[in-house]
Amino acid sequence: MNRAFSFIILVVCCLLLSCSASKIYTPQKKYPQQELRKDYLLLKEILEKKHPGIYWYTSKDSMDMYFSKYYNAIADSMTEQQFTWHILSPLVDKIHCGHTSVGNSTAYRKWGRGKQLPSFPLYLKVWNDTMAVIANLNRKDSILKRGTLITSINGVSNSELIKQMFDYLPEDGFANNVNYIRLSGNFPYYHRNIYGLSKKYSVTYIDTAGIEQRKEIGAFSPVKDTSKKVTVKEKRPVPPKENKLLQYRSMTTDSTGLFYIMTINTFNKGKLRPFFRNSFRELRKKNIPNLVIDMRSNGGGKVNSSTLLAKYISRTSFKIADTAYAVSRGLGSYARFIKGGWFNNIEMFFISSKRKDGKFHLGLLERKLYKPKERNHYNGKVYVITSGPTFSASTIFCNGIKGQPDITLVGEETGGGWHGNCGIMIPDIKLPHTKTTVRLPLFKVVQFNHVPKTGTGIFPDIYIGTNYDALLKGIDFKMKVIKDIIIKDSKTLSGL
To answer: Within a 10 A sphere around the Cβ of 281, how many other Cβ atoms?
Structure first.
């Protein structure tokens, strides 16, 4: 009896260990061509039937051609990364919807969490057709240091390299300013995933004499430190709650006392309603003549939060959308492949209604007229700083207040589309075989008083681009220009 019981326990343990081992993720695992093509065809079907903006900037004939091209490119088995980056990413880019993007499986993200992988060693600031070194992971390299201008990598010129890499990155219409920021934020990551890893890289650069030189550099390979073995998990101090909120929003005063700087990095978090209420009350009480709203890193979030901010500064009543609609009232049988699919079905059913055009409209968003706040409304001069990551709800905010008296957009073109975007309700499709995810917008928004469909972001009233000297010195050039404008205006008003 005891032997039989022991045998059963042994078998169960072996099975559990076997199951556990089978769940260990290996990025080198290759998926059969048949499974990859099944995932691909499912994605194609969902996009064609449920994406509201699939033919917004690319015609159906062209999208059909791209669907065939990348389907045929699945010629053999592939790893998840190969499938994600060389099939799905360039395909999704052709839709020109910044809210439709490809993500790794949960297993891959868990595997990669905290890992520093081998990569191209240079972090580069990228703008126009220029690349400048901002960091070098090979710290002993005394030549390719901060500020060095790079002109080619492995024989590919700057302009061609940027053009090629943009073919793998999503954007609203053709507003690629957001992709300059993406490349500048983590050039090694994108270069590795798009071009693969090399042991050596041939780089041309401009030396201190202004002459183009060539240098061969090695890939960065992180060295694992095995000298220390941590047996007790260290507890990191938890930052105070208010300090944590500062990563989402903050307000500071400039040393001149002439203006306050309100930084809003998201419309999703940060307890924005009380923050706005307290901030604009303070601005009123102290009679601050100028307000700078920094939205360079604001990727969007809740439209009701961006609308609330607009109400505090807008000089006129405004609307959010001329039109906002989905192509169907639910996800149908595809709901099982979409995160929160059934809940999305329920929400779409109650918030949208069918019109004569056959689309399912968000009537409230199309009709609602928002009035400026009366209490603590800010009447001074406002400067809103924009950049490529200014996206989605933050772009809707900028569109609503642009052109109003004493409100000036400064900086660079937004990454969010000026004509509109697909930024409402964006669940993830989870492909059944590779578990790769693709974001699926469900509603298309054409903004109030929208510009023609040219595919641009919102242009600033005062353009302030990248300044090379400021980059070298680590100066916030955009903020410096705004400060100079405010000081000059103040002197003019005081008669100095």
So the answer is: 12
217-228: b (≥16 Cβ within 10 Å) or e: bebbeeeeeeee
- Residue 226's DSSP bridge partners are none
Q: Is 154 left (phi over 0), alpha (psi -120 to 50) or beta?
A: left
Q: What whole-number distance in Å separates Cα of residue 111 and Cα of residue 258?
A: 50
Q: Residue 172 carries which DSSP code?
A: S
Q: pLDDT per residue over 72-127, tens digit each?
A: 999 999 999 999 999 999 999 999 999 999 999 999 999 999 888 999 999 999 99
Per-residue pLDDT at 133 exceeds 50: yes
Q: What share of the chain is helix, strand, coil (3-state, %, to 5)?
A: 40, 20, 40
Structural domains in the chain, sorted by start: 122-218 (2.30.42.10), 241-494 (3.90.226.10)
Beta carbons of 65 and 55 less than 8 angstroms apart: no
Contact yes or no for 388/181 (Cβ under 8 A)? yes
How many beta carbons lie within 10 A of that of residue 370, not counting itself? 17
Question: Whole-angstrom Cα distance, residue 177 to residue 179?
Answer: 5
Exposure class string for 420-442: b at 16+ Cβ within 10 A, else e: bbbbbbbbbbbbebbbbbbbbbb
| Beta strands at 30-31 and 321-326: parallel, antiparallel or unpaired | unpaired
Q: How far apart are CA 491 and CA 496, in angstroms?
A: 5
Which residue is listed with tokens 């689309």? Answer: 359
- Residue 101: which of 26, 43, 31, 28 has the closest Cα? 43
What would the pLDDT profile of 208-264 be if each residue is shown by its tens digit?
Answer: 999 999 999 999 998 765 444 444 444 555 566 668 899 999 999 999 999 999 999
Helix (H) or strand (E) holding 198: none
Note the pLDDT tens digit of each residue in 429-461: 999 999 999 999 999 999 998 889 999 999 999
**Distance from C-alpha of 369 to C-alpha of 385, rounded to nearest angstrom:** 25
- State how far the alpha carbon of 255 is from the alpha carbons of 235, 260, 476, in Å: 37, 9, 15
Instruction: State the amino acid at position 371 in one-letter form.
Output: K
Residue 464 near residue 477, CB atoms below 8 Å: yes
> CA 36 to CA 434: how far, in whole Å?
7
- By the 8 A CB rule, do 133 and 144 touch? yes
Residues in Cβ contact with 396 at an 8 Å cutoff, skipping those fewer than 6 apart: 303, 306, 307, 320, 416, 421, 423, 445, 447
Cα–Cα distance, 378 to 288 (Å, whole number): 9
- Phi, psi (rounded to 5 degrees) for 479: -65, -35
Residue 338 DSSP label: B
